[in-house]
Amino acid sequence: MGLFSSATQRVPEVFAAPRHIAVIMDGNGRWARKRFLPRIAGHKRGVETVRELVKQCVKLNVEYLTLFAFSSENWRRPAEEVSFLMGLFMDALDREVVKLHQNNIKLIMIGDRTHFDAKLIAKIEASELLTANNSGLVLTIAANYGGRWDILQAVNKMYTVQPQLAGQYKEEDFQPYLSMSYAPEPDLFIRTGGETRISNFLLWQLAYTNSISPILADFNEEAFNLAIQSYGKRERRFGRTSEQLKKPEA
Ligand code: IPE
Ligand code: IPE
Ligand code: MG
Questions:
Q1: What domain range is 56 assigned to?
Q2: How far away, in angstroms, is 244 Cα from ligand 3 center?
Q3: What's the pTM value of the predicted model, to 2 decimals?
């Protein structure tokens, strides 16, 4: 397939590619404003950026790519913009899912989908079903997603399933109920557009993730490789000191 080359072109040897990259696809409006275009032109351009990002992740053998496409707070935008975004989402599924499937990509949506139009829900379900057994990149789209919503729905499920443990829940009891329990925590968090906020994205899972922000909305292969290289140079200490990481645990 032309679109997503299966050839594995790794970044220079010394840099380990992250297993899981989480991205807030932001800055569409600013991209458009700079060019005297309507915001919706920026959103269309955002879809192109997603295609490029998926392509790069496949190339680098990244296992999980998680994209924040629409937050639970984005309903507060003008009605026309929300409805344009929903239409764009439908069109993108129509146009891209077969290609994703041909490239062995598994598509999963996280977020409260019950608020979407019935047609969109059906399309999401069909796309997930079609790609469910694929073994390549796991592409997660967070739509009507909020990190706080995720934590609360997990707490409620955990309490329903294991009420006898109330008052003694541990992290390991809780994690399986989160929307992304199928994936390791993100290694790299990218927010395009230059902001550094988490904006209610994966709150629990980003606790130790390295973040990179100054990538512009017109994201390209070079910017992506720079992000990966910068990730490869950082030390993840998880509360320890740098010296401890160099010595094997006592
Ligand atoms: C992100 O771009 C797209 C969505 C939130 C759906 P924005 O629309 O937030 O663009 P800016 O931040 O206004 O530039
Ligand atoms: C975050 O972007 C959500 C998505 C990109 C889907 P926003 O543009 O909505 O975030 P804020 O309002 O700048 O925090
Ligand atoms: Mg924004």
A1: 20-234
A2: 39
A3: 0.88
